[in-house]
Request: fold
Amino acid sequence: MKKKRSFIPNGVAVYGGLTLLLILGIAAFVFRQDFSGWEKRYLADAPKNGSLVQWTLNDDLETFLSDQVPFRQQLVNLNALAELYTGRAVQLGAWPVGDAAVEKPVRADPEVLEKRIAAMKNLAGDIPCLFLIPPTAGMLRMDEMTAARRALYAEESRVYDILTSQEDFIPLRQLFEECPETVYYYSDHHWNNVGAELAYRAYCLAADVKAAKEDAFTYTRYFPFRGTTYTRSGLPFVREDVLICAEPKAPVELKVQGEETTYDHLIFPEKAITYDGYEVFLNGNHGKLTITNPEADGGTLVVFRDSYASSLLPYLSVNFSRIIAVDARYYTGTFRDVLREAGSIDRILFEYSLDSLANDTSLTRKIR
Amino acid sequence: MVFCSFTFLLLFMPAVLLGYRFLPARAKRPFLLAASLVFYGWGTPSWLILLSYVMVLDYAGALLLVRIRKGRRAMFAALIAMNLLPLLYFKYSGFLQDTFTALTGFRFMSDSPLLPAGISFFTFQGISYLADVYRGNARVQKNFILFGTYLSMFPQLVAGPIVRYTDLEEQLEKPANLTTADMRAGLERFAVGLGKKVLLADAMGRFWGKMSADLPGAGIPGAWLGLMAFSFQIYFDFSGYSDMALGLGRAMGFIFPENFDRPYRAHSLTEFWRRWHMSLTTWFREYVYIPLGGNRKGERRRDLNIMIVWALTGLWHGAGWNFVLWGIYFGILLILEKKWMLGRKKTGRVPGWLYQILTYLPVLLGWGVFTGKWQVFSAMAGTWGWGSAAAGLECLSFLPMIIICAVVCFLPKPKIDCRRWAAPILMILCLAALAAQGYAPFVYFQF
Reply:
């Protein structure tokens, strides 16, 4: 029988291969990390003595190795590419569109939306209120998708259009679609500074407030930024973003509920280099925060919001002497409590993504 | 422990294979036995008690069988019963309980026990050893280490192939010189098996999982493609495991019998079962069908024997009526095929691929019975139309993988042996898939 020839001798292939595998296994213990920045989560620690006592060593060790295996990010990237190039892009946590990754289509039950909107309007009572619902990045880039994927976004798009065609909803979609610049990050589901500024100007127009000019802000750039859709997709070619942050030149103060410190800035550069660069705005997510600007004359604005508003609030702070922003996911009280405690309120803004508005369970209890 | 886990791939396998390679010959078997026990007891150490029970029972039972003259038959029957008892308790007590409760409304057990991995495999290996010793086909093994190594050898312990003692006797007693070429060939086969499991079977499993979760939504294409995906999943899962077992065995100098021979290329159901899980088919033929009389006692008795064997085969695969039905379904089809099809000569007018399809179709429908998801037949028949857009997108997205699987299953084996360069690539891709998705247990562990 003819012997197989190989460029790599058998000994090198066998012993080298097995040793390499063993080194990878041992390296997981030696070079273990507590936190994975690109995945934005804490990693499993090595199994403790308790694992043996509780007979969970198998699962604990597997979880540990799976989290700590060397080159994990490259391996996840490789797997994402394998999924993509075998046609299974839909299996990824976020879908690639060009050099961006966008969130999967949102499932929104129109009945739930209707109930929540009614409850919010009821909550606002006589106070003038507006709704700001950002269109999703996927919805805006449907033209670049295959027919099958477009069909899935079509439903989300239909629900969005019906919802935002109502009175008191700020029209954003057309504005975003007609904007020559990219309004969303490539690697994150949020709007970028262009999107936030467009939303700000649209709000001012709808609320009959004079929008500040660009020279009312200082712009700072932070690079690179890779957000949640990059993490979820795992695709290495998703473009790195530049975080451009607008900080009002006016003397603003930020007070976060539950914290002693009062900050004299809304942008936190130190957060730009952490695992979640988006926390550069307002120092991350908070249940309730208050921004004051003694130079503004717009009175008090209460914003019930999700994370999209983090980059919008610095713009709004130029116009309102007091902004109270509440995030239902982290705020323990009800929205009525907020309104009662706020005293005099001039306007209310409900800023929610379609996903938050339809599926955030914390909203149901808080808008009653 | 499972093969497709980081614990196995990055720690256990390299450590054991390197250790086994460099240990002196006399230490190899005890080392392998110890490694196998660690492998088996890793997740649930209490299962070692069960494995040890079967090991000691069969070792001592065989020694007794060759020593006593009177009552050998009764002794043999008792040993078989004692082998089957744990299997009956762990695997079938829940099934018996459910059936009994459905008939009488009375429950005699509160909970079903947790099924130990591979119990069906090592029990059948033990029985085959006792039967071979009883019938004089095998010499009794007096060395407990060697016998223990045979019964618990980790490559094939939990999911086969079911290796008969006579296949390994000589290899255990007179180990062949282990070469790096053997080790390399074994590791290459292991990588191919791992690729089948992690890259193909798991992908197909995910698709079938999605379709079977909402069969009305899946519609006609979702149900057909979903069931096809399941047929590929179960094939790649099990044949992948067999490849890994054979590969690891070879990397340690053992040659196990082949378990799969591209079964979806079969031209008849009889041929399909000669190519699918060959070690189980052989086991049932040797230890059930032939002792029952085989085809030596007339056609009626042969048909009855076939039905018994297939009902048992179904039951071996799982404790549920769907598995029994699945076995009976194949029993009936095989009898019909024997009566009307196999005797006839192929005319040559019918192309081979048509025979392949005509064989695959009943096998596919059989998998529908096997899954126990009866709605799949309604969905395939079009009861719920063409399904939802979301299911359509899933079908489209998995179509390339389904086509890849179909090509691997249905087309002839490529003439170029690409294992040498494919193995490292498959290994890296598998590590990538495991890093991304965690580890998934083998389907065949439940059997």
